[in-house]
Amino acid sequence: MASPRTVAFHTLGCKLNFSETSSLRRMFEDKGYAAVDFKDSADIYVLNTCSVTDFADRKCRKIVRRVLRKNPYGKVVVTGCYAQLKPKEIAEIEGVDLVLGAGEKFRMLDYIDQLDGAKSKGMVHTTEISEINTFNNAFSFGDRTRSFLKIQDGCDYSCSFCTIPQARGRSRSDTVEQVLENAHQIGAAGMKEIVLTGVNIGDFGNGTEVIEGIRPKKEALFIDLIRELDNVNTIDRFRISSIEPNLCTEEIIEFVAGSQRFMPHFHMPLQSGNNKQLGQMRRRYKRELYQDRVQRIKSAMPHACIGVDVIVGFPGETDEDFLETYRFIESLDVSYLHVFTYSERPNTPADTMPDPVDMNKRRKRNEMLRELSEEKKKAFYKRHVGKQRKVLIESDRKSEIVSAWTDNYIRLNLPEDQFEENTIREIILEEGMLNYN
Question: How far is Cα 410 from Cα 335, in angstroms, rounded to an integer?
């Protein structure tokens, strides 16, 4: 009996990409393919790309060269956000057989069947992003304890630095019923935690059908969805991956504060603590609103973890502007930062803005905020020493310690012989348990 064809996957970028890659893998397995590690020789290599990642072209080329050293005859398929934005450039990379855009990603098997036995020269299949109005549900099964569940895709916002609307299209969502069905399926597989993912999940509820240019009114909002999910008793923990501050309503904050399953953990992108930059970025709030959301969360849940996204070096950001951002973040009761150095993105309004910031200044500002992030995280962690928290044992690394996360997103190292993977325990936090990395 012939061995099944093999396929290997590699994902760049966000949790949303990971959820989609996992669903693609199951799609291939359902057709009889055997999934193997990306480091191994495979008949087909699938690279799911990201447009936010710096040096996307260079990374793509490097990965293609690496896999073809494993199997010079392996078929290389590139999809994802970068593939939608720059399909022709990717098709020119030596060794790439097939490039699929956002609308073709989940029909990958149809295109795979069209590839002949010999190496192909960069076939491209993409749809204009304005024509994409369907939603493909997805969730990950790669981690034995946690699943990333896609509930929303695309974005109707027009931030001046962002290419995501060009790569993923307009905002559209799954139905509440389908999300609940997926959550039950994940719970039945034994996973303890679900992370809700999407491009702009607070905008959940947008339909996918457009009639004569009019989009249907939302039948359910994000708050309606999470209330329903709170009743899924096969899942112990839900997390909100990221939510825009203007969509993180008081109603949502109060709900999480009183929920048994939604974790006291919010990740809200700020991007700048300077209202001038926020306006130039076309963000839908000012820093005063962000400060209000942080205060409301901490008032309802003093133990809550709050993560922040920040961009440094945006065009026109002066030293004084950056220091205003730094001091503003320093004043906030937040727990950690994700700091991004601004990089130019073609076909975005920011790319043509005057007064670009010197790259050395960008790097220095990034370093300053990363140091502030470390200080914030250490202070948040130390504040909970001696406190009792519920902990999910994340992984068994077959060493003397295992990794774990508290409900409020404090990372721990625990003795392997005392804790079993994929269990939830209540423990008193000790200084020696804290993992600041």
Answer: 10
- SS3 of residue 193 by DSSP: strand
- In percent, the amount of the chain with pLDDT more than 90 equals 78
DSSP-assigned beta bridge partners for residue 173: 152
Contact 254, 300 (CB under 8 A): yes
Burial of 158 (0-12, 13-18, 19+ CB in 10 A): exposed
pTM above 0.90, yes or no: yes
Instruction: Look at phi and psi of residue 308 and say left if phi exceeds 0, alpha if psi is from -120 to 50, else beta.
Output: beta
pLDDT in tens, 340-353: 999 999 899 999 99
Q: Which fold has domain 138-382?
A: pyruvate-formate lyase- activating enzyme (3.80.30)
The strand pair at 44-49 and 172-173 is best described as: unpaired
Distance CA 287, CA 276 (A): 10
**Closest among 325, 238, 255, 338 to 297, alpha carbons compared:** 255
Tens of pLDDT along 134-152?
A: 899 999 986 678 999 999 9
Residues contacting residue 46 through CB under 8 Å, at least 6 positions apart: 7, 8, 9, 10, 21, 24, 77, 79, 108
**What ranges do the domains of the chain cover?**
6-127, 138-382, 388-433
- Let me know if domain 6-127 sits in CATH 3.40.50.12160: yes
